[in-house]
Amino acid sequence: MILRECDPSTASTTDVMAAVQIMNEVLAADLPEDPPWQLEKAKEYLTVTMPGERRFTWHALDSDNTTLLGRASLLITEEIGVLELMVRPAARRRRVGTALLAAIAQRAAAEGVEALGVEVAGGTPSVGFFEAHGFRRACTELRAVLTLESVDWQHIATVATGIGAGYRIEVHPDGPPSTMFETYTAAKEAIRSLEYDDLELSPSSYGPDRLEASLETLRARGMKPYVVVAVHERTETVAALTEVVVPEHRPTRADQYDTVVVPAHRSYGADRAIKARMLLELRAAESQLLDVQTWNAAENAQMLKINSELGFRIDREWREYAADAAALARQFTAPGLTH
Ligand SMILES: CC(C)(COP(=O)(O)OP(=O)(O)OC[C@H]1O[C@@H](n2cnc3c(N)ncnc32)[C@H](O)[C@@H]1OP(=O)(O)O)[C@@H](O)C(=O)NCCC(=O)NCCS
């Protein structure tokens, strides 16, 4: 097996096609209920990063130097090194994954990264793999999927109007307007300290500058943002917000990102109303969309209840695993300790 580091910014169409093919083989084997990727904007999705972030990519090739067996990437953010790793099903249990992980660990340690994090779908080979390499489980979430075909649209239309007096709902396809950045980020900041502890594997968007960069990065990666907010009319501030992204490389399945209700504005029905309004907007604007997926902490009973009322059905556990980068790198360099 040959391990080759690749510069993501100069990836050829052939490289991108190979990456998409591996992803689709992995999905078919491990998450057969998930829709496959398409080539549209796949290169941008795989390569564009937030300002200040860096991405390293490796390919594992067969000894003929042409057949791709697996690929891995390491995204270094301010907080953490986020890794992604996949090995073609036909090439598994031959230490390809271990070789890719060793390359990641050594680079992460050399770059001064302290912690490595990875998202792992429950019930897939990744669980055994990362546990065998000493990763510890940092948090557990539940993924839920809403199939649009099963939605009771009349009920959703009623829920969408069920918000208390003094609030108005606004829909912002393409993200909130810049005039709202200040109060939008303040709403996110207001619940940040109350949120369940996870590894912040996705870019956070706190502060207007960071929000702007985050939106630009999403768009550049071919991920169309939709935002619905509840505005508290007396103060003209954002009382609640919900964010969904429709990725161009996987246009039939949207990702429900953050939903936030500022503590002072709870119990006015804002969370249900904005989420229901979002579904109406998505149905109108994205005719190809089949379903929406979302992740919630298992302890977040309130959000799980609302999602269940809207028609989301839990389909899998999703775990975040973490490891100390330097300790992991040492495992791969210490003689006799190689996994
Ligand atoms: C997880 C994955 C990378 C492992 O790749 P691999 O090349 O088969 O792994 P290795 O051969 O290096 O396995 C090393 C060790 O991990 C553990 N392991 C690997 N696969 C396992 C499985 N299916 N069940 C339990 N343990 C497993 C074993 O301890 C194994 O050692 P052993 O074969 O001597 O028992 C591969 O199964 C894969 O690509 N899965 C999908 C990954 C994915 O979903 N990626 C997207 C997000 S990151």
Furnish the topology, listing elements before pairings:
Blueprint: E1 2-6, H1 13-30, H2 42-47, E2 54-61, E3 68-76, E4 81-87, H3 96-110, E5 115-121, H4 125-132, E6 136-147, H5 153-160, E7 167-173, H6 181-192, H7 208-220, E8 223-232, E9 237-247, E10 253-261, H8 270-285, E11 291-297, H9 301-310, E12 313-324, H10 325-333
Parallel strand pairs: 4-5, 10-11
Antiparallel strand pairs: 1-2, 2-3, 3-4, 5-12, 6-11, 6-12, 7-8, 8-9, 9-10
The structure holds coenzyme A.
How would you sum up this structure in a few lines?
The protein is α+β, with helices and mostly antiparallel strands and 339 residues long.
Write up this protein.
- The structure is a single chain.
- The chain is α+β, with helices and mostly antiparallel strands and 339 residues long.
- A 12-stranded mixed beta sheet has the order 1-2-3-4-5-12-6-11-10-9-8-7, with helices on both faces.
- The chain has 2 domains: 2-140 and 320-333, Aminopeptidase; 152-310, Aminopeptidase (3-Layer(aba) Sandwich), CATH 3.40.630.
- Strand 9 and strand 10 form a beta hairpin.
- The protein is built from 10 helices and 12 strands.
- Helices cover 34% and strands 31% of the residues.
- It has helices at residues 13-30, 42-47, 96-110, 125-132, 153-160, 181-192, 208-220, 270-285, 301-310, 325-333; strands at 2-6, 54-61, 68-76, 81-87, 115-121, 136-147, 167-173, 223-232, 237-247, 253-261, 291-297, 313-324.
- Bound molecules: coenzyme A.
- The site of coenzyme A has 20 residues, from helix 1, strand 4, helix 3 and helix 4.
